[in-house]
Amino acid sequence: MGATRRHIDRTFNCSQTTISKLLIRYQQTGQTQDRPRSGRPRVTTPDEDHNIRQTHLRNRCVTATSTAATALGHVISRRTVLRRLYTAGTRAYRPFRGMALTRLHRQRRL
User: What ranges do the domains of the chain cover?
Assistant: First the structure.
């Protein structure tokens, strides 16, 4: 289009390096799409992971299945929700009910 790289990076609010790399990629491949990467792509974005955690913290009694159905606009599995909560530091703990009383404890109480 005839615009300078400095004008383009100010327009899109990104660095000059990004514009240079995109230009080189376009000259080499004829397109600006990302190259294929190894590994399976993630189902959720970091923002969606944060949303899952916030939804769970608002109501801790909700199961992972119902969180998966309501937290995002698309369907994710129960295991995905559990993994995201686990990596966020939200783990399930068994409530402490007290020490188990032995026969000696019961005798001393009586």
Answer: 1-33, 46-87
